[in-house]
Amino acid sequence: CGGHVKTVFSTEHVHPRDRFAFWHDVARKGVVDHESTPGCRDTFRAQLRAGTVGAIGLVSFQNSDMSVTHTRRHMAHANTDELFVCRQFSGQIALEQDGRHVVLGAGDITLIDPALPYEGRFSEASDVLLLKVPRRLMEARLGKTREMTARVIKPGMAESGLLSASLAMLPSHTDDLSQAAEALLEVHLLDLITLSVGRTMGQDRSHTSPSRALVRVELRAVIEARLADRTL
Q: Which of 60, 136, 178, 200 could form a disulfide with 49 if both were Cys (CB 3.0 to 4.6 A apart)?
């Protein structure tokens, strides 16, 4: 569907008794295979929109209180060639992966690997944007990402603040993008994700050695920022 983000599913016109079952089927196919339990089946509501920016898949969904579990059984049906970048808009998500726990509030971001088990709890009126990023593109920039998942990326730093703001605008600004614009936006998003994850990991003294690819991204950002500087 190109850069256009369109509504794929809504419980609005589904009978209350069928809403969660319909949603679960759509979410398993459109996001990732998992088991899920609603906080209240009778009052459950949800909506899912989907699109792409270049090779990056976009999934925006709003839902009522629920819990999710992605187990080794579900991993057999997951696309292990992807990594998930989650940006919370409203409400909260509590996630656990690889022994790490993270709670996302509005503006927060985290990385989740569908090739590993995880659990999550969505608050009432949760609204999240999930980016499905090709693993090869992320690992070419960051190296192996297993230690980088389920770590909160706060928008307080310059890089992560710019990433959070960019993702906040993304669902509303992908209509009618040219192929050239999509290609530029894809690289821009990948670079911001790389810088934000790299800076977050750098705060941990056990992860202070950046990959060569991350150093290249940082150098390119500095150069591009100063291209108009005649003294460069």
A: 60
Residue ranges of the chain whose pLDDT lies below 70: 1-3, 203-218, 220-222, 224-225, 232
d(CA 92, CA 207): 27
Is the Cβ–Cβ distance between 119 and 166 less than 8 Å? no
Give phi and psi for 166, each to the nearest 5. -65, -45
Taking the C-alpha atoms of residue 100 and residue 151, their distance in angstroms, rounded to an integer, is 7
Contacts (Cβ under 8 Å, ≥6 apart) of 59: 30, 31, 48, 49, 50, 129, 130, 131, 132
List pLDDT tens digits, range 87-133: 999 999 999 999 999 999 999 999 999 999 999 999 999 999 999 99
Smallest CA-to-CA distance from 85 within 7, 10, 190, 185 is with 190
pLDDT digits (tens, 9 = 90+) for 109-119: 999 999 999 99
d(C-alpha 54, C-alpha 122), whole Å: 29
